[in-house]
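Section 3.1: Structural characterization of target chains.
Under the original work plan, the team committed to producing a structural model for every single-chain target entering the pipeline before any wet-lab resources were allocated. The record below documents one such target. The sequence was received from the expression subgroup and is listed exactly as submitted; it comprises 329 residues.
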Amino acid sequence: MTAPLGLGSAILSAAALSFRLAPSRRLALTAPARCHQHALKAMSSHTPLARDRAVASRVERRVLQLVGRAMGRFAMLRPDDRVAVAVSGGKDSLCLLDALVAYRRRAPFPYELTAVTIEQGKFKAPVRTIASRVRALGVPWVLRDDRPTLRLVSEGIAHGCDVCSRHRRGELYRVAAEIGATVVALGHTADDCAESLLRNILFNGRIASLPPVAQSRKGTMRLIRPLVFVSEGLTRAYAETHDLPTVKCVCSDQDGPRRELRQLLADLEARHPGVASSVSAALGNVNPYSLFDRAALERASAGTARDDEIASAPRLERATRGERPEEVE
């Protein structure tokens, strides 16, 4: 079956991570093969519009399934939480906002959502173009200027991504505190977690990544990353099939270690399918006995981490019941 009209770019760009385009050119999502066959047969007699809707529905279900898995596994939300969702205008953050709105309908308890966007003068298009989408979801939207970064941009002062990130995070926390948020939701994906792990190993001399749940430095808010099991291939397909009005940032065009690592992972995945999922699985399968961290070894020797506990530690692959952990096949 040929790819539905309007989905070609999403399907092809997602192929290296979340999707595979089979030799027969049939669209396959990362789910058991038998499910693919039945779904494709059912779709084959539908009109192009019906096929588009069917694919969009399947993508959405998969995103919600993985978000729900992260929510349950890491106990991200609590009853009556007030969640500030960091919305940059990119595909990941808009996908996150959509998913949290949809998940709220099936969650066992209520929680509130507010979208927060920080203007730093680096959007390629007016960020207000996402306003209609946010309003359609019934979510309040706060747009706040990051004055320190805007000044750097207006005065042409060179600065790195670390400066932008620090200013943006600080402004996000301030807005979250003003609206009384108990949780800040960030749109980092499984790819971001894998890249962070490699970046820390290669450039910072430590084994660390982006935690699914963390406490803010002042301890007043929780940080959650509901997309930790979702690949960027899947968020890209979601944005395409749901016509999300994404707004890109000029920072995404800059060369640097992050882009190099992303290309490295993509090249390895193309030659050795499963590499990306293996990196993600490693984040949930840590063996302190095989590392040099003295404190971890001492804790293990004191009996706080036994061999049987390490062997039975929850792995991402086990959590997905045999499926790859971040939609990678």
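The longest strand covers residues 111-119.
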